[in-house]
Amino acid sequence: MTVDQWQPTACILCECNCGIVVQTEGRAITKIRGDKDHPASAGYTCNKALRLDHYQSSTNRLTSPLRRRSDGSYEEIDWDTAISEIAARFLAVRDAHGGDKIFYYGGGGQGNHLGGAYSGAFLKAIGSRYRSNALAQEKTGEAWVDAHLYGGHTRGEFEHAEVSVFVGKNPWMSQSFPRARVVLNEIAKDPDRAMVVIDPVVTDTAKLADFHLRVRPGTDAWCLAAMAAVLVQEDLCDEEFLATHVNGVEPVRDVLRQVLVGDYAARCGVEETLLRAAVRRIAAADSVAVFEDLGIQQAPNSTLCSYLNKMLWILTGNFAKRGGQHLHSSFAPLFGSGGVGRSPVTGSPVIAGLVPSNAVPQEILTDHPDRFRAMIVESSNPAHSIADSAAVRAALESLELLVVIDVAMTETARLAHYVLPAANQFEKPEATFFNLEFPHNNFHLRHPLFEPLPGSLPEPEIWARLVRALGAVDDAELDPLRRAAREGLDAYAAAFLGAVGANPGLGRVLPYVLYETLGPVLPDGLAGAAALWGLAQKAAMTYPDAVRRAGHADGNALFEAVLAGRSGLTFTAHEYPDDFALISHSDHKIALNMPEMLDALQTLPARPSALTTAEFPMVLSAGERRAYTANDIFRDPTWRKRDTEGALRISVDDAEAVGLVDGDRARLTTAAGNAEVTVEISDAMLPGHVSLPNGFGLDHTDGQGRSVAPGVAPNELTSSQWRDEYAGTPWHKHVPARVDRIRR
Ligand SMILES: Nc1nc2c(c(=O)[nH]1)N[C@H]1C(S)=C(S)[C@@H](COP(=O)(O)OP(=O)(O)OC[C@H]3O[C@@H](n4cnc5c(=O)[nH]c(N)nc54)[C@H](O)[C@@H]3O)O[C@H]1N2
Ligand SMILES: Nc1nc2c(c(=O)[nH]1)N[C@H]1C(S)=C(S)[C@@H](COP(=O)(O)OP(=O)(O)OC[C@H]3O[C@@H](n4cnc5c(=O)[nH]c(N)nc54)[C@H](O)[C@@H]3O)O[C@H]1N2
Ligand code: SF4
Ligand SMILES: [Mo]
Prior knowledge:
Elements: E1 2-10, E2 19-25, E3 28-34, H1 53-56, E4 66-68, E5 74-76, H2 79-97, E6 102-106, H3 114-126, E7 131-132, H4 140-149, E8 154-156, E9 163-167, H5 171-174, H6 180-189, E10 194-198, H7 204-207, E11 211-213, H8 220-233, H9 239-245, E12 246-247, H10 249-257, H11 261-268, H12 272-284, E13 288-292, H13 294-297, H14 302-314, E14 325-327, E15 341-342, E16 349-350, H15 360-364, E17 374-378, H16 382-385, H17 389-397, E18 401-406, E19 418-421, E20 440-443, H18 459-470, H19 479-487, H20 489-502, H21 504-508, H22 510-517, H23 531-542, H24 544-549, H25 555-564, E21 569-573, H26 578-582, E22 590-591, H27 595-602, E23 618-624, E24 648-650, H28 652-658, E25 665-670, E26 674-681, E27 689-693, E28 700-701, E29 707-708, E30 735-741
Parallel strand pairs: 6-7, 6-17, 9-10, 9-13, 10-11, 12-22, 17-18, 18-19, 23-27, 24-26
Antiparallel strand pairs: 1-2, 2-3, 4-5, 4-19, 8-14, 15-16, 20-21, 23-30, 25-26, 25-30, 28-29
Helix pairs in contact: 2-18, 3-18, 4-14, 8-11, 8-12, 8-14, 19-20, 23-25
The structure holds ligand MGD (2 copies), iron/sulfur cluster and molybdenum atom (MO).
Organism: Mycolicibacterium lutetiense
EC number: 1.17.1.9
InterPro entries: Asp_de-COase-like_dom_sf, MoPterin_dinucl-bd_dom, Mopterin_OxRdtase, Mopterin_OxRdtase_4Fe-4S_dom, Prok_molybdopt-oxidoreductase
């Protein structure tokens, strides 16, 4: 069937989730363009969205639950068998070792968080406690700092900022904020605005910068400390803001006063005059917004760098004003709250509720009595995306039970005892909780474009079947809610409060209760959106004024708007001073003094600023975002129009020293392994620095049954122990390596 009508949905390739409109034919997406009605993207897309049919029409979809045979091959089984066996085997693990030995990884990629919203019911019912996902290999260091400073996640308002600062972030390629390329071009063109980029590579973003601080890889801590020190030493702080809104300023200033700016500039390889000029430009601006990303979050001293870069906007008072940095509302929090716990085996910090990804192999591959025994992986490919793939594979293989929920037979699925085929993101209602904007924050529920591929099920249904199989809920208890749901949302809200009040056990499996009782009355195949009712109520209670200002009278009205708004909607409209109310400390002030970070700062003079060795003299950044990378979402490599091998970028000097010409094959070796790579000589790279893209080395069988796996899987070259001392986040951007010519 051809559907000529343009149907709204969203791109699923990065956290922006730009609104798109599509036409379809049969099960294929045939035409794609930006959706002008989307409140955040307003018609914008990057080059990648137009390639989405390579996801939709992938020839590598799973179409039946699979069970591993003793010889390692898989047999197709029916859903009832799969669900009852999986539930029985998880119950057996719980009875033998405790439910807390069942570990959950994933819960959503760049386009899908609804499945993860339902997993909690099953996990709580079985007594599982520990979980993790990709955020624990990038954002947990920042989350720890954020929790201390103001208790929430911040985003910069780049659209309006006079000065935008990108620290280890290349938004031209990686996007991450609305209409990124448009905004970057606007900044570059406007003589009254400026851009500061801290990156060792001359990226497409750096090319647009007014101040490119080309740090040596891994030396950002010295650069950022020097920048913060200039603010203090040259009296460039916003004293009124600090006096009114910030606690603990003096201990921070005392330490920054001691920083030898010239020495630190030399340590990071940036001209002192350029560094000072960039800081003075920041200090002179009416508004400053800062984005830190993987270039520091996955490099040495990462947590300290997260702390230090925030000085650039806090000491200058660029908060709670147009074009500044903001706390924001969330439709559902991406990060768990609560203090820092510890993982059971390695005692690693559990920040934002997440065990560090890098600790996963050690939490399993040990005879420690508290090791994880069973695992569920949903919408994630840890055997490819976590450091040290060999260790991850060995760990996953040693589990008593591994269940993977995915659309494809991934590197991780191939290690599972059971693989459950999910309907893909255009075959079910979907949404993400990447709602990170201020003052207007948006949420987009996408309606299904297609029926689920035969044999697959949407995750909400998979989780509901698993909860039912546990026998955790007496179904008769749900009948009053089912009846109320048929009467409308007001009756439902009243019945819901009564039911959960009378039986707190239902509260534990809330998403399941909503799916089972409200789901059936939702129109247009939107049963899977039922959990959003609870989130809408919560948003309306947490931000009553901002939700009303956005035009929603209460939680039910917000939920109805979510169901109806095919192109997404604004769910909160804040005013700038609301930023202060969003600070979670009781006095609503920023708490600047973090003793651990100030201690770390004081050890910088003694810390090594290079970690390379004679054996591994180069720094490899393993996992750069490029025009044709999109995590592990596309398995079909023909989606790429360029850079099909995922070339190793190397400087002109290094290529000459090794004896390489463009397009040569070379051997890349690290402490963890080695790989053959195709070389691209690039004047964007500093001598001593090479980079490989992310998302390569995924295998794929094409329509003719041919198997291909172009490029290098970056985590065959990375190590588990190579990680931040506070947050356990990996140093993927800073892997000591060697490049050799291959002689033939
Ligand atoms: N095209 C594309 N876009 C994506 C994704 C994708 O796969 N492809 N993935 C999405 C995801 S999950 C994420 S988390 C974001 C990540 O987005 P980014 O963090 O922007 O992506 P990267 O290219 O990995 O790293 C950013 C920059 O860090 C620089 N860098 C390397 N070493 C250092 C260093 O020592 N110091 C500094 N200051 N910089 C350094 C690199 O040169 C690079 O320009 O992208 C999102 N967007
Ligand atoms: N060396 C190195 N490693 C890295 C990085 C790096 O820069 N360098 N980057 C890290 C970062 S920032 C991130 S975010 C992670 C990302 O790594 P992962 O957490 O593994 O996430 P994705 O690549 O998004 O994987 C998405 C998975 O979801 C599946 N999928 C797609 N649609 C659906 C669906 O509808 N339902 C289900 N159930 N599954 C679906 C896909 O087939 C795929 O297996 O990688 C990290 N790993
Ligand atoms: S910016 Fe992100 S969400 Fe938007 S089109 Fe590009 S990849 Fe898709
Ligand atoms: Mo990421």
